[in-house]
Amino acid sequence: MATAPIIPTENRFLDLDMPLMLDGGQSLACPRIAYETCGTLNAAKDNAIFICHALTGDHHVVSDHPKTGKPGWWVRMVGPGKPIDTDRFFVICANVIGSCMGSTGPASLSPDGEPWGMRFPVITIRDMVKGHIAVLDALGIDSLYAVVGGSMGGMQALSLAANFPERTRAVLILASTARHSAQNIAFHEVGRQAIMADPAWRDGNYYAFGKGPEKGLSVARMAAHITYLSEAGLTEKFGRRLQNREEKTFGFDADFQIESYLRYQGLAFTDRFDANSYLYITRAMDYFDLAEEHGGLLANAFARSKARYCLVSFDTDWLYPTAESRNVTHALNAAGLPVSFVELSAPYGHDSFLLDVPALDRVVEGFLG
Amino acid sequence: MNALHRAGLRPDLTVIADNVARGSSVLDVGCGDGTLLAALRDGQDCHTRGMEIDAANVGRCVARGLSVIQGDADKDLAFYPDKSLDYAILSQTLQTTMRPDKVLEELLRIGRKAFVSFPNFAHWRVRTSLLWNGRMPVTRLLPVGWYETPNIHHLTINDFRALVKERGITVEGRWFLSGDQNCSAAAANFRAEHAVFLLSRGD
Question: Which of A81, A157, B103, B125 has the most neighbouring CB atoms within 10 Å?
């Protein structure tokens, strides 16, 4: 089998020479932002597409993940001849602040030379977007061809469109929402409490001990992973099948395949993600309510926007269900903006936006034009 | 008027396209694959938007660069502001809605004017089919059997005339089509296969 062609990418860092003012009232002195680019920025600098990544994602959209060695998280969508075509577009993806994949986060060293830990200021989705804007400024890009994001990436894309309306001409939102619901917050709180209940968390000061709250982070990931899949998808993939055994053991080993799968997912996650980052980023998502930021009326958030919009939801996504996308669609409509919306049928639940859904490819390609 | 043969457009859509003012704003409810919207955008510089219930059709519209929302005429028109468009268009869709009268009122709330086209259930071919066969008619314009047709509220031209009169809606224009020919208003309820009305509300 031929190896996949390597798509040329550049991974760079931007070290801000001024503080990033945060919504919480604090500021982050000279943060670093890691980002990846793919494709060529044209002379007019008007062919840039900014991709916003999801909760546990990173800027390695097409390049291999440095820790796991796995291909970039959106190679099926982004690349030469793909729906987001890097032969035409200059694609940028930046690691969000608060993360642990190169941008400044709680695992980074604070000015006193020690890791930030829980001294890291609480950040918001809008704060992440301010970091993205800094990258655009550094690249000299006044206006994006489009900003694209799924899940938490969609929240950033909406926030960018609302708060920096002059910076993008199109907005593509996949499986996302304009506010975190009580149910969304509830699942995140389960994850955070699992991390904090792990004695190895040590109030966030685990960096010097060589071992973090892996058990807690693993449980957080297991709970979250369930929310990314659909009941039908789980049944189809695992059913009640047993894991490498003929009969139940009448014990608490991972008898069922689904248990074994979740344990593996949880454990694998601890190899690549920082527990404190998980706390901070889930908090930022919980605080997200775009209408609240704009006087309580979502349509007001888009009052200064002139972009065209496209929203996609998936019929099996119960984490950010279709009603959330419709809510945004109606607000954009009320604001008089050109908007398309479609609910696609796919069996994979919330994760559908990352997986093989040919109808999504057609919508993305068609909308980008 | 031989414009009834505009490239790729159904006769009723041709009538609508010919009578939409250049540069106006238009919502096509039940826009299908976006044929009419694309013609209005490309040929008449209209600001277009659409609503369509079928996801695959919405995908086709988006691929044509149109702004189309997947939605249901019975439920989702409520989210459009009053008089926010020059025209609201409902072509061959009225008879598929749960409450055609309410959809009609919504069109006139959203659009300053509304185009409505529908198949005429009193066309002579439908009448003779019912009379001689005693079965629900299956004709060129109504090709699907009773149990799977999306047309749940069949109506005649005279039914529609009565409804708009009862609701105090102004008829600004009407066209009656048999195949791709026009026919007179007097014989329309018998001879026309479908009708196009341009409506407004004088308030």
Answer: A157
- At A28, the amino acid letter reads L
Give the CATH number, domain containing residue B175.
3.40.50.150
3-state secondary structure of A40: coil
Q: Cβ–Cβ of A341/B70 closer than 8 Å?
A: yes
A359 → chain B, closest CA residue: B59
B185-201 confidence digits (pLDDT tens): 999 999 999 999 999 99
Q: Which of B27, B29, B64, B67 to mutate to test the interface with A (most CBs of A within 10 A)?
A: B67
Q: Which amino acid is at B163?
A: L
Domains of chain A and CATH, by start: 9-181+289-368 (3.40.50.1820), 184-282 (1.10.1740.110)
Residue with tokens 């690691």: A95
Residue A348, min C-alpha distance to chain B (Å):
17
Query: Rounded distance, CA B96 to CA B153, Å?
Result: 6
B131 domain residue, yes or no? no
Q: Is B63 in Cβ contact with A336 (below 8 Å)?
A: no
How many structural domains are present in chain B?
1
pLDDT digits (tens, 9 = 90+) for A230-270: 999 999 999 999 999 999 999 999 999 999 999 999 999 99
Q: What is the CA radius of gyration of chain B?
A: 16
Q: Which residue among the candidates A151, A230, A277, A352 is catalytic per the annotation?
A: A151
- Tokens describing residue B125: 């071919």
Contact B56 A359 (CB under 8 A): yes
Range of the domain at B36: 2-120+154-200
In the DSSP assignment, the letter for residue A256 is B
Cβ neighbours of A362 in B, within 8 Å: 59, 63
Residues in chain B within 8 Å Cβ distance of A332: none
Establish if B133 belongs to a structural domain: no
Give me the interface pTM, i.e. the ipTM: 0.87
Q: How confident is the model at residue B2 (pLDDT cuts 50, 70, 90)?
A: very low
Beta bridge partners of B111: B85
